[in-house]
Design brief:
140 residues, mainly alpha, 3 helices, 79% helix, 0% strand
Length: 140
Protein backbone atom coordinates (compact mmCIF):
# COMPACT_ATOMS: atom_id res chain seq x y z
CA UNK A 1 0.00 0.00 0.00
CA UNK A 2 2.86 2.30 0.46
CA UNK A 3 3.44 2.21 -3.26
CA UNK A 4 -0.08 3.53 -3.85
CA UNK A 5 0.37 6.39 -1.39
CA UNK A 6 3.68 7.38 -2.94
CA UNK A 7 2.17 7.28 -6.43
CA UNK A 8 -0.70 9.52 -5.28
CA UNK A 9 1.78 11.90 -3.74
CA UNK A 10 3.77 11.93 -6.95
CA UNK A 11 0.62 12.65 -8.92
CA UNK A 12 -0.39 15.43 -6.53
CA UNK A 13 3.06 16.99 -6.77
CA UNK A 14 2.96 16.78 -10.55
CA UNK A 15 -0.53 18.31 -10.71
CA UNK A 16 0.53 21.02 -8.27
CA UNK A 17 3.56 21.83 -10.40
CA UNK A 18 1.42 21.97 -13.53
CA UNK A 19 -1.06 24.22 -11.79
CA UNK A 20 1.78 26.55 -10.84
CA UNK A 21 3.10 26.43 -14.38
CA UNK A 22 -0.39 27.10 -15.71
CA UNK A 23 -0.60 30.35 -13.73
CA UNK A 24 2.70 31.47 -15.21
CA UNK A 25 1.47 30.54 -18.68
CA UNK A 26 -1.61 32.68 -18.17
CA UNK A 27 0.56 35.60 -17.09
CA UNK A 28 2.75 35.14 -20.16
CA UNK A 29 -0.28 35.01 -22.44
CA UNK A 30 -1.58 38.21 -20.86
CA UNK A 31 1.76 39.90 -21.58
CA UNK A 32 1.77 38.98 -25.30
CA UNK A 33 -0.08 42.13 -26.50
CA UNK A 34 2.37 44.30 -24.56
CA UNK A 35 5.32 42.39 -25.99
CA UNK A 36 3.92 42.74 -29.52
CA UNK A 37 3.38 46.46 -28.99
CA UNK A 38 7.00 46.85 -27.91
CA UNK A 39 8.17 44.86 -30.93
CA UNK A 40 6.04 47.04 -33.21
CA UNK A 41 7.49 50.18 -31.67
CA UNK A 42 11.04 48.82 -31.98
CA UNK A 43 10.36 47.95 -35.61
CA UNK A 44 9.05 51.46 -36.31
CA UNK A 45 12.06 53.07 -34.64
CA UNK A 46 14.46 50.85 -36.61
CA UNK A 47 12.63 51.62 -39.86
CA UNK A 48 12.77 55.36 -39.19
CA UNK A 49 16.46 55.12 -38.33
CA UNK A 50 17.26 53.26 -41.55
CA UNK A 51 15.20 55.74 -43.56
CA UNK A 52 17.13 58.65 -42.07
CA UNK A 53 20.48 56.95 -42.69
CA UNK A 54 19.46 56.34 -46.30
CA UNK A 55 18.49 59.99 -46.74
CA UNK A 56 21.80 61.15 -45.28
CA UNK A 57 23.72 58.80 -47.56
CA UNK A 58 21.83 60.05 -50.62
CA UNK A 59 22.44 63.68 -49.64
CA UNK A 60 26.16 63.02 -49.19
CA UNK A 61 26.41 61.33 -52.57
CA UNK A 62 24.57 64.20 -54.26
CA UNK A 63 26.82 66.74 -52.53
CA UNK A 64 29.95 64.91 -53.71
CA UNK A 65 28.61 64.77 -57.26
CA UNK A 66 27.83 68.50 -57.23
CA UNK A 67 31.23 69.30 -55.77
CA UNK A 68 33.07 67.23 -58.39
CA UNK A 69 31.01 68.75 -61.22
CA UNK A 70 31.64 72.31 -60.06
CA UNK A 71 35.36 71.59 -59.69
CA UNK A 72 35.53 70.18 -63.22
CA UNK A 73 33.61 73.15 -64.64
CA UNK A 74 35.95 75.60 -62.93
CA UNK A 75 38.93 73.67 -64.29
CA UNK A 76 37.55 73.78 -67.85
CA UNK A 77 36.70 77.48 -67.65
CA UNK A 78 40.11 78.31 -66.22
CA UNK A 79 41.78 76.43 -69.07
CA UNK A 80 40.27 78.80 -71.67
CA UNK A 81 42.90 81.08 -73.11
CA UNK A 82 41.57 84.65 -73.11
CA UNK A 83 43.76 85.56 -76.11
CA UNK A 84 42.00 82.92 -78.24
CA UNK A 85 39.35 84.25 -80.67
CA UNK A 86 36.92 81.48 -79.71
CA UNK A 87 37.24 82.09 -75.95
CA UNK A 88 33.94 83.97 -75.70
CA UNK A 89 32.12 81.19 -77.62
CA UNK A 90 33.63 78.54 -75.36
CA UNK A 91 32.64 80.49 -72.26
CA UNK A 92 29.04 80.82 -73.55
CA UNK A 93 28.96 77.09 -74.29
CA UNK A 94 30.31 76.28 -70.82
CA UNK A 95 27.71 78.60 -69.25
CA UNK A 96 24.92 76.76 -71.08
CA UNK A 97 26.38 73.47 -69.93
CA UNK A 98 26.52 74.73 -66.33
CA UNK A 99 22.87 75.81 -66.57
CA UNK A 100 21.98 72.30 -67.73
CA UNK A 101 23.88 70.82 -64.79
CA UNK A 102 21.99 73.12 -62.43
CA UNK A 103 18.68 71.90 -63.90
CA UNK A 104 19.75 68.28 -63.52
CA UNK A 105 20.84 68.82 -59.92
CA UNK A 106 17.58 70.57 -59.07
CA UNK A 107 15.67 67.55 -60.36
CA UNK A 108 17.91 65.24 -58.33
CA UNK A 109 17.48 67.31 -55.17
CA UNK A 110 15.76 65.17 -52.55
CA UNK A 111 12.28 66.22 -51.64
CA UNK A 112 11.47 67.08 -48.07
CA UNK A 113 11.19 63.93 -46.06
CA UNK A 114 7.66 63.20 -45.04
CA UNK A 115 7.23 63.28 -41.33
CA UNK A 116 6.76 59.93 -39.74
CA UNK A 117 3.57 59.31 -37.89
CA UNK A 118 3.75 59.97 -34.17
CA UNK A 119 4.07 56.99 -31.91
CA UNK A 120 1.21 58.14 -29.72
CA UNK A 121 -1.61 60.31 -30.95
CA UNK A 122 -2.53 63.32 -28.89
CA UNK A 123 -6.20 64.05 -28.74
CA UNK A 124 -7.20 67.39 -30.15
CA UNK A 125 -9.18 69.64 -27.85
CA UNK A 126 -12.91 69.36 -28.38
CA UNK A 127 -14.98 72.53 -28.59
CA UNK A 128 -17.93 72.98 -26.24
CA UNK A 129 -20.39 72.56 -29.12
CA UNK A 130 -18.80 69.26 -30.15
CA UNK A 131 -18.75 68.09 -26.54
CA UNK A 132 -22.46 68.93 -26.14
CA UNK A 133 -23.26 67.05 -29.37
CA UNK A 134 -21.34 64.00 -28.15
CA UNK A 135 -23.18 64.06 -24.84
CA UNK A 136 -26.54 64.33 -26.63
CA UNK A 137 -25.69 61.32 -28.79
CA UNK A 138 -24.63 59.37 -25.74
CA UNK A 139 -27.81 60.13 -23.87
CA UNK A 140 -30.10 59.06 -26.76
Amino acid sequence: MTTNNSSYEDINETVGKRADTGDEDIEIVEEIPEILAHLGLANEVAHTNLEQQNNISNNQALFQLKYATIAKCVEVIMSVDPDNKEASNKIKMYKELMDQFVDVFEKMEPKKAKSTKPVSKKEEPVSKKEEAAIQEDAST
